[in-house]
Amino acid sequence: MLLELARWLEQLDSLFGLFNYLTFRGILSALTALALSLWWGPAVIRKLAQYKGGQPIRTDGPQSHFSKAGTPTMGGALILFTVLASVLLWGDLRNKYVWVVLAVMVAFGVIGWWDDWIKIVRRDPNGMKSRTKYALQSLFGLAAGVYLYMTADVPALTTFYVPLFKDLALPIGAGLIVVAYFWIVGFSNAVNLTDGLDGLAIMPTVLVACALGVFAYASGHAQFSEYLQIPRVPGAGELVIICAAIAGAGLGFLWFNTYPAMVFMGDIGALALGAVLGTIAVIVRQELVLVVMGGVFVIETLSVMIQVASFKLTGKRVFRMAPIHHHFELKGWPEPRVIVRFWIISVVLVLVGLATLKVR
């Protein structure tokens, strides 16, 4: 929106040409999202509390969580609104990738909102039926995959790349739809499973979004993509604006979500943000790198899968409780210690993922 205005004003003063630079607009996007989050945050929290939007606490969870009962949830709406506002202000709205990522964010946000609404109104901590939730996620995940495949205009978009190996690339054609489906739906649920402690999910999300922004910028830049020998995806650079907005909005939300949390993200935020990370990774052709950088999300998901499989097959549990962050809580780790140590792991994994830019 403002980009078009700046392009018109550039005819009057060359200073407005700054807005043509992705890095400049990315900074403005992050700062705008951060400012809006801090500005709107208190009002959103008061409104959620007024509508008794408190989070019901599962009775089988750690006893230390019982004191959190009634804390307003659905705070992820604050993240989504600020990201949307920032991208509409600073993004190039003629870019198809911007719209597909925003569409995925809104679609999965609606699923999360419905799930949170059931939890609040019916006081059911389990929320929407798993079958219904998964069906809706699958519908929108497949729709995004089909769109990306149908609009693929360069061979890179239908090629699966393996990091560290510059010549290992597998043409997958329509297999892109399958890859997109698993990454979008998979990371949507992975972030949701991680969102169990104050600030635990949002900081890794911010870190991964920033790293994906680097990949998006390099993928959309002809010289950088050639020099780094990564897939060239024209137009992908504009996703920097979305990644920056997620970083700014996430930090603004963390201001209120840090321990002890004044508001919880809820499924409305976790499902949407995870789906967005998956979508961006598919567009910039860095699916496997996302698995590394989002390793905390992957580990949390695997811990649940291992726990369920072990109990069904042997009747025994591998962890004291899953997801794995609850396991460490029950081992006696204070909640802030679990959170910060998982953040540190995320920083390390993101740096490893970024290192693949040069190691080919």
From TrEMBL:
GO BP term (any one): peptidoglycan biosynthetic process
Gene Ontology CC entries for this record: plasma membrane
Residues annotated as binding Mg(2+): N192, D267
Compartment(s) of residence: Cell membrane; Membrane
PROSITE patterns attached to this UniProt entry: MRAY_1 (PS01347), MRAY_2 (PS01348)
Record field: transmembrane: 20-40, 73-91, 97-114, 134-152, 172-193, 200-219, 239-256, 263-284, 290-311, 338-357
A molecular-function term among this protein's GO annotations: metal ion binding
Name of the protein: Phospho-N-acetylmuramoyl-pentapeptide-transferase
Species whose genome carries this gene: Lysobacter spongiicola DSM 21749
Gene that this polypeptide is encoded by: mraY
